[in-house]
Amino acid sequence: MNIINNNIYYVGVNDRNKSLFEGLWPLPYGVSYNSYLIDDDKVCLIDTVEVDFFARYISNIREVIGSRPVDYLVINHMEPDHSGSIALLRQYYPDMQVIGNKKAIGMLEGFYGVTDNCVEVKNAESIALGKHNLTFHLTPMVHWPETMMTYESATQTLFSGDAFGFELGSLPFGCFGALNGGVIDDAINTDWCWDEMTRYYSNIVGKYGIPVQNALKKLAGLPLAYICSTHGPVWHSYIDKVVGMYDSMSRYATVPGLVICYGTMYGNTERMAEVIAEAASKAGLKDILLYNVSKTHHSYILRDIFKYRGLIVGAPTYNAGLYHEMDVLLAEIANRDVKDRLFGWFGSYAWAGKAVQKITEWNDTRLHFEAVGTPVEMKQSLNAETQAQCEALGRAMAEKLLADE
Ligand code: FEO
């Protein structure tokens, strides 16, 4: 059993079976559902795990407390990957009091029919467990309306819910990915974490930049020795880096690189993307990423769109509209309220062009990015004129990115 610090135990589980988190997001490294147990005069659990893993979960709890009962369960987040075991847990511990804010208590009834022995708490209220004291900080929309964080003052431990995790098992301050033995960051190799944390944030939390900024402000005065999120490692040695990443991502801050996304059916539109990339490279830009939107899962493309300032997209005309996978990607970008990107675009057609017009409409109505260069529209395949136009677009984007650096 992993001990976090002074009588705080990790009792979570790992899911290496699920292919897609939320049925949407690939989990190449699995995901952890983290729960914590504070063994004090009162025994308190923080969040639970997905219900499919209940047998492992109750075994982890009993390994720490044996036949003693659980007195309190704190709910920081009601999404079922963390609340799923509440009803079963109640059967093992019928006197356990469930602590949550008003919205969480409402969801508790809606999801699980649990209405008795519930204790509603408000922002900044506290309870004492003995040597440990818990204070509740409501952080709505990070990333559900009922989300809150719980701070334990004796050990300076923040139970952050999805924040600062990742689905390598986790969410906010969470990230993606399972925990393979070690739990605390300084006990494991964290090299894989950072890209997965960015992918987690951009896909799951990305829309909620303002609530994340509000939560960070609310937590700013707290001394933090440990951040225990609901997914991924417990942060201890890397707290400054993790909080810095969340601050930066929630401000939609970027570095000067370029993501070029294209749809292609027979390689002609892909050739436009390559010409644009070559021109940007010749202009001195080093960080250039090309993605085929039909091949690379969009969660990875969105991760890099969150990182880099430059974005160029292009696709063929299809059914008198825009190639479907590009339409989907542009909707995903718009739905996350991504801001302040430099944007270029191009398109192709065989007999009647619509793609460029449709991408223009996306930018005018939903994206509102700063347009760079002139959009390029190609009929059938590259010729000298469209090749020069693609080169001009790549060059214009590189020069603008490098000038702003
Ligand atoms: Fe928002 Fe990990 O659930």
Task: Write the topology of this structure.
Layout: E1 2-5, E2 8-10, E3 13-15, E4 20-21, E5 25-26, E6 31-33, E7 36-39, E8 43-46, H1 54-65, E9 72-74, H2 80-83, H3 86-92, E10 97-100, H4 102-112, E11 118-120, E12 126-128, E13 133-138, E14 148-152, E15 157-161, E16 164-167, E17 173-176, H5 193-205, H6 209-219, E18 226-229, H7 239-250, E19 255-262, H8 268-282, E20 288-292, H9 298-307, E21 308-318, E22 321-322, H10 324-335, E23 342-349, H11 355-367, E24 370-371, E25 376-379, H12 384-404
The structure holds MU-OXO-diiron.
MU-OXO-diiron binds at residues 77, 79, 81-82, 143, 162, 171, 230-231.
Task: Walk me through the structure.
It is a single chain. 35% of the residues lie in helices and 26% in strands. By secondary structure, the protein is an alpha/beta fold. The strands form six sheets. Strands 1-2-7-8-9-10-11 form a seven-stranded mixed beta sheet. Helix 6 runs antiparallel to helix 7 and helix 8 crosses helix 12. The chain is elongated, with a radius of gyration of 24 Å. About 1% of the residues have low confidence. It binds MU-OXO-diiron (FEO). The site of MU-OXO-diiron has 9 residues, from helix 2. MU-OXO-diiron (FEO) binds next to helix 2.
- Main pleated sheet: 7 strands, mixed
Number of strands: 25
Helix content: 25-40%
**Percentage of β-strand residues:** 25-35%
- Structural Rg: 24 Å
Low-confidence stretches: 167-172
The tally of helices reads 12
Q: Report the span from N to C terminus.
A: 48 Å
Task: Provide the residue-averaged pLDDT.
Answer: 94
